[in-house]
Design goal:
The protein is mostly helical. It has twelve helices and three strands; from the N terminus they run H-H-H-H-E-H-E-E-H-H-H-H-H-H-H. The N terminus is likely disordered.
Length: about 325
């Protein structure tokens, strides 16, 4: 009887032990769920050469590269990009999107004048994934640092971009600042520089890509603005000269009818010569105006091409 009871107790103990083991394994799996998820996503994943190059170009360290690859980043053409990023209602130019469920998608830009856009976008979206994984305490600390840094930003383009995000949904601003400051601002606070070393071995290389393509856009805008000013100024001079010549011509016609001596003829001829000289000047200005207008049309077309290359929206 004692032996049977002993066996019964041992059987219950085995069940309890197994239950404890299962609970322990479940708790361990829950605690390590992110590592397990990452392992499962990377187990059979071989990043394409273009994706590897983006990680290399942006100096992502091993930690950031692993995070980048977990979301199987893709370079998409216009159609695929809009299908993959259809859930994102942006008021700014959309060049990439990140979803913890779907992955990272980058708009493929083949205009060499915009080299650097894909690198900056890749780093930007990877940092969205990084921000997504911060715990509450880490996020609060980082938000405080990025918010303090943003107060010192003087770049109007960045300020306007953040204002656009804030107008649409103020809740996304800290996340966007986390990505934008890292990839587009050269000088950050020592604390932020130290934090971003968690992801990049040389953050300045990413900023250099941003500055490169932004300078291409700025150059086009400045050329167009300069030409607009020249054309406007020259148009004003032409209009003024045309009005003056119209009056002079009318006066010459009246004066010619009154020429009745050699002295008046000489005076008239001198005025007529001066008039013709001013007509030649007008024609020269008109030619210059038309030449500048052709230059402006060329620059405007090139600028339009650049912005069209950046515009990921479906073409109508």
């Amino acid at each position: 009887m004692l032996k049977a009871e002993h066996r019964k107790i041992s059987g219950h103990a085995s069940v309890y032990v197994l239950l404890i083991i299962l609970i322990g394994l479940s708790a361990f799996a829950w605690y390590k769920r992110q590592e397990i998820y990452d392992w499962s996503k990377l187990r059979n994943y071989n990043p394409p050469i273009q994706i590897q190059q983006l990680a290399f170009d942006t100096t992502m360290n091993n930690f950031a590269r692993k995070l980048f690859y977990v979301y199987h980043p893709e370079l998409n053409d216009r159609t695929s990009f809009n299908q993959n990023c259809s859930d994102f209602d942006e008021h700014t130019i959309v060049l990439g999107c990140y979803s913890s469920a779907k992955g990272i998608f980058l708009f493929d830009i083949d205009d060499q004048r915009l080299d650097g856009v894909e690198q900056v976008t890749a780093a930007h979206e990877m940092l969205h994934a990084a921000y997504d994984r911060l715990n509450n305490a880490e996020r609060s600390k980082i938000d405080s640092m990025t918010n303090a840094m943003f107060k010192n930003i003087t770049d109007d383009r960045i300020k306007e971009t953040i204002a656009s995000y804030r107008k649409r949904d103020a809740g996304v601003v800290p996340n966007e600042l986390h990505s934008i400051l890292a990839t587009e601002v050269r000088n950050l606070s020592p604390e932020l520089e130290q934090y971003y070393e968690k992801y990049f071995s040389n953050r300045q290389a990413v900023v250099a890509f941003s500055e490169k393509y932004e300078s291409a856009l700025t150059k086009q805008r400045n050329q167009a603005t300069a030409l607009e000013l020249q054309i406007s100024g020259l148009r004003h001079e032409i209009d003024k000269l045309e009005a003056e010549l119209t009056i002079e011509q009318e006066n010459l016609i009246k004066e010619r009818a009154q020429v009745d001596s050699k002295e008046k003829a000489d005076t008239f001829n001198a005025k007529f010569y001066a008039f013709n000289h001013r007509v030649d000047l007008l024609n020269s200005q008109i030619e210059r105006h038309n030449s500048l207008l052709d230059d402006y049309k060329k620059v405007a077309l090139e600028t339009q091409e650049l912005y069209q290359a950046l515009d990921s929206r479906p073409k109508l």
